[in-house]
Specification:
Length: 579
């Protein structure tokens, strides 16, 4: 009767609701028997368990699952507490249990790792610890496994830990944990290396912040396995070097230099690793020295490369030897730009020629293209000092060789760098031959480079292009009656000076000030007033605040000559106005 009444008033849904309420009442009355029914406990666990958390991502992370047979999750909580001693690691709980039916079965163990990797993927963590608690008589024996994402690592291990009142994880557990975490970090580093020739500084900053916490924290560094700790420091130094090169942050290069100096002492008795560290130290010193007015870091870089070459010989380590010869050539080129003679530039060309004996287009296309690009820079700088065009033409050939491999699609940043260099040599050739077609080729090359190198991505690289664009526009404007190109040149130099500041890159700041002075001087010579000539003298004076006798004689002489011409024009103009 009652069910019929419910059906008439509420319909089918009313009957269903009544049945559910009846079932809930029956379960409540006889809960003990119901809980033991087949599948019910698993269903209850599924319904009540927490969702899988996501790692925050600001640190490397380790997850700990529920351990099978772990009453009140006592061991899970203890492991998490111990892991927090590893400062710099985010520790997460995953409310799931991974069961291994037969611990002696390889298939069952692999299935456990497969489940663990699913949880890793869902949680975004770096490693996961899972396992079970064995109850033998009155004692508990935890068996733990560590799983890393993917099959790349191929490392996972079972740890039998004797129960004791304080419960400490054995040394081998920490060693394997640190090795696996080191491999996770190495994989992230290798991912960046696979993007060589692309802009990665924005993501590298995040990677550096996370790894720095791990390797520099006093509380956790004693937990690292020795070889892994050294490798992590090297990875941090390498990341700082790349970030400093791409972001324009000198502080990152200084940090990299400090790291490499510590690492080279660790490798004192290991010739190969010591040589590799000295090579990288030289690269960091060279990159920093290129931005500074003093030449001491460039000279120090040359010293480090020559020391590395004592161990990196052509016969024993040809690939490494060629890499260091290439890097030595870069440092010598930067030194040669500041010297009045061509000794360092000639030595740079010789170093690049040596590297190209090993770095061939067939076997090492991208390394070959890199060295061809660098050779072109040295030849271009030599060509600026010589009267003819022989070195300049060789430079054009070298850059075009490099661009046969360095395409915008594959290595956009490297492609853009070579476009910049090609623009420089076209600009010099165009000025030397008074050929507007070559100058317009330079402008075209710079504008291509600006499609990849933006102010936001690479502020100093962007400023370099703006400076060079200004030079090309200056040479075009010199031969035109209109001031349009000269005005565009001034705008390009002013844009460059927004990033090329005296505090940040004094040597490059001074070069751009000199270039700006040249353009303003030409504009001033064509006008009747003094405005542009006075601005030109001011720009030259700024440049001479950085260019010092004995340090940069080539630039000192050029700037003084240019300044003298502008000052002479001012005196002549003042006399004319007075009459």
């Amino acid at each position: 009767m009652f069910r019929a009444l419910i059906y008439r008033v509420f319909g089918n849904w009313g009957v269903v609701a009544l049945a559910i309420l009846g079932l809930i009442f029956a379960i409540w009355v006889d809960w003990d028997d119901f809980e033991d029914a087949p599948g019910i406990s698993a269903l209850i666990e599924y319904v009540t368990r927490d969702s899988i958390p996501r790692a925050k991502g600001n640190k490397f992370s380790v997850a700990v699952t529920n351990l099978e047979n772990d009453l009140d999750r006592q061991y899970q909580h203890t492991i998490k507490r111990l892991l927090r001693d590893f400062e710099g690691i985010e520790v997460l709980s995953i409310d799931r249990t991974i069961s291994v039916d037969d611990p002696n079965s390889k298939e069952d163990e692999l299935e456990g790792h497969r489940q663990a990797r699913d949880f890793l993927k869902e949680s975004g963590t770096s490693l996961i610890i899972w396992g079970r608690i064995l109850r033998i008589e009155s004692e508990s024996h935890p068996d733990l496994y560590i799983t890393a994402p993917g099959t790349h690592f191929g490392r996972s291990k079972q740890y039998a830990i004797e129960s004791n009142p304080t419960f400490r994880l054995p040394k081998i557990f920490w060693e394997d944990l640190s090795k696996l975490l080191g491999l996770v970090i190495l994989t992230r580093k290798e991912a960046f290396e696979r993007e060589e020739g692309r802009y990665v500084a924005d993501r590298l900053k995040f990677f550096i912040d996370r790894i720095r916490i791990l390797v520099e924290s006093q509380t956790s560094k004693n937990l690292w396995e020795s070889g892994t700790y050294e490798s992590l420091n090297k990875m941090l130094a390498d990341a700082l070097l790349k970030y400093g090169q791409q972001s324009g942050q000198n502080g990152a290069l200084e940090d990299a230099i400090a790291k490499y100096r510590v690492i080279e002492n660790i490798y004192e008795n290991n010739a190969r690793d010591r040589a590799a560290t000295k090579n990288n130290l030289g690269v960091a010193l060279s990159a920093l020295g290129e931005r500074q007015k003093a030449a001491k870091n460039l000279e120090a870089a040359v010293t480090e490369f020559n020391l590395a070459l004592k161990f990196r010989t052509q016969d024993q380590a040809p690939t490494e030897w060629a890499a260091t010869q290439n890097n030595l050539g870069v440092a010598l080129t930067n030194l040669g730009e500041r010297k009045k003679n061509t000794q360092h530039l000639d030595a740079a060309v010789a170093a690049f020629d040596k590297a190209l004996k090993i770095r061939t287009k067939t076997h090492n296309p991208f390394d070959w293209a890199l060295t061809k690009n660098n050779l072109g820079v040295a030849l271009s700088t030599l060509g600026e000092r010589a009267n003819g065009t022989k070195s300049l033409n060789k430079a054009v050939s070298a850059f075009n060789d490099a661009l046969s491999v360095r395409t915008q699609e594959q290595v956009p940043i490297d492609w853009a760098a070579t476009q910049i260099n090609l623009g420089v040599v076209y600009s010099t050739l165009g000025e030397r031959k008074n050929n507007p077609k070559l100058l317009n080729k330079a402008v075209k090359a710079y504008r291509k480079a600006l499609t990849e190198i933006t102010r936001q991505k690479d502020p100093l690289g962007w400023a370099t292009i703006q400076n060079n664009l200004g030079v090309a526009l200056f040479f075009i404007g010199k031969s035109e009656t209109s001031l349009k190109k000269l005005e565009a040149s001034v705008r390009a130099f002013q844009a460059a000076l927004k990033e090329r500041t005296r505090a940040r890159v004094p040597h490059h700041w001074a070069i751009t000030q000199n270039n700006l002075g040249n353009t303003l001087s030409i504009m001033g010579a064509r006008e009747s007033g003094l405005e542009h000539l006075l601005k030109a003298v001011n720009a030259y004076d700024n440049a001479l605040k950085v260019f010092k006798e004995g340090q940069t004689p080539y630039f000192v002489n050029r700037t003084k000559e240019n300044s003298a011409i502008a000052r002479w024009l001012i005196v002549e103009r003042q006399q004319s106005l007075a009459n």
